[in-house]
Specification:
Elements (H helix, E strand, L loop, with lengths): L2 H35 L9 E3 L5 E3 L2 H24 L6 H10 L1 H24 L6 H10 L5 H20 L3 H19 L7 H17 L7 H15 L1 H5 L6 H19 L2 H18 L4 H7 L1 H8 L47 H20 L3
Antiparallel strand pairs: 1-2
Helix pairs in contact: 1-2, 1-3, 1-9, 2-3, 2-4, 2-9, 2-11, 4-6, 4-11, 6-7, 6-11, 7-11, 7-12, 8-9, 8-11, 9-11, 12-15, 13-14, 13-15
């Protein structure tokens, strides 16, 4: 193909990516409005308390997932219709990664499966068991928790997405790990307003940069357009502490970004990314990501962008006295949801040495991914 032809193909691909991202954002906002107006099983079912003890809704998560999946499905349908009207050309091959049948179906399956199992844990999880160690330990003693069901479901979702993307057996396993591992890891960051979406945006940027070295330079950007657009569309609600992703939204975003990485990055980059996901997931069992971020000035500044100022750290003696159930100092009522997990997941740190170790680990894997050659 001539240089002019390649330029036209690239321009068309970028335009399609922008349209996909915009459609995803619009669909996510529309889904959020509809869910807030008509919440399934009632508003209280989706209400939780955040890290301040204030009320937030979990409906952001399903709305983000629905927006991203809708954009992928519509894009695939449009591409299939357009491809039927023209012969096989370089432009068509270039566009196939954006909305091609297998890639888009893998994204939709990853997002839909992660959404379903995330909703299960959001609504039915008790929070008594936390992390891989907690759920697998319970399973070893014959106790089946919603968390263990979710982990098995994410593994199955990852395998389904890996099979749809195809390739050699090793590629299928790596891609399955990226989908399932990405879903689980992003959920570990959903502890403070906007943090998970910011991590998702950073991850999307790395995937887009990593895919720029492929023959189709826009493949990585096209792959992340739908989840990125949906996540950013509802970021203001998250930062304002009116809503949170919850397991449903964090798992869906993470799984779709994992599928995007699986379909657009070269083998070496995918293997390195999977190693990073595994290392961070294992480290999360021993150290608090929140403590790491608080101890690192640059990460803390990014984490606080757009957020309300932190609550006062030193409560008065009067404020530490026991309060009546449901009472708040400002007169508002806090709903205590019996048997439900309250607020964002909290993890306890394990010492300054572990904080320094995980801080180094973050920096190391971000540098490796940024410099990865195809």
């Amino acid at each position: 193909m001539s240089r002019a032809g390649r330029a036209a193909a690239g321009g068309s691909s970028v335009a399609g990516t922008v349209v996909t991202g915009a459609a995803s954002a619009a669909a996510a906002r529309a889904a959020y409005r509809a869910l807030r107006q008509y919440p399934p099983a009632g508003q209280q079912t989706w209400t939780r308390t955040n890290h301040r003890g204030e009320l937030v809704t979990l409906l952001e998560g399903p709305a983000v997932a629905v927006g991203a999946i809708t954009a992928e499905v519509i894009g695939a349908a449009v591409a299939a219709r357009m491809s039927g009207r023209r012969g096989k050309s370089q432009l068509q091959i270039s566009s196939e990664r954006t909305v091609g049948s297998h890639a888009s179906l893998a994204m939709a399956v990853a997002g839909g499966g992660a959404l379903g199992f995330g909703v299960l844990d959001d609504l039915a999880g008790s929070g008594k068991r936390r992390g891989l160690k907690g759920h697998l330990g319970a399973l070893a003693h014959g106790e089946v928790t919603t968390g263990s069901v979710k982990l098995a479901g994410l593994a199955a979702t990852g395998l389904a997405g890996g099979l749809l993307l195809g390739g050699r057996r090793s590629d299928v396993l790596v891609n399955a790990g990226l989908i399932a591992g990405g879903a689980n890891l992003l959920n570990l960051f959903d502890l403070r307003p906007g943090r998970a979406v910011k991590v998702a945006a950073l991850s999307a940027g790395l995937i887009a940069a990593g895919g720029a070295g492929r023959p189709d330079r826009s493949a990585g950007l096209a792959a992340v357009a739908a989840p990125l657009g949906a996540g950013l569309a509802l970021l203001p609600e998250d930062l304002a502490e009116r809503a949170m992703l919850g397991d449903a939204g964090a798992h869906a975003l993470g799984a779709m970004l994992g599928a995007a990485a699986a379909g657009s990055l070269p083998r070496s980059a995918r293997a390195g990314l999977l190693a990073g996901i595994v290392a961070l997931t294992v480290a999360s069992e021993k150290v608090s990501f929140t403590k790491v971020i608080e101890a690192t000035p640059m990460l803390r500044r990014i984490d606080m962008l757009g957020r309300r100022p932190a609550a006062p750290a030193a409560p008065t003696a009067a404020s530490t006295a026991p309060a009546a159930e449901g009472d708040r100092p400002d007169g508002a009522q806090v709903i205590r949801l019996q048997g439900r997990r309250g607020g964002r997941h909290r993890r306890v740190g394990s010492g300054e040495d572990r904080v320094r170790s995980i801080n180094w680990l973050f920096g190391f894997f971000f540098r490796v991914l940024a410099r990865q050659e195809p």
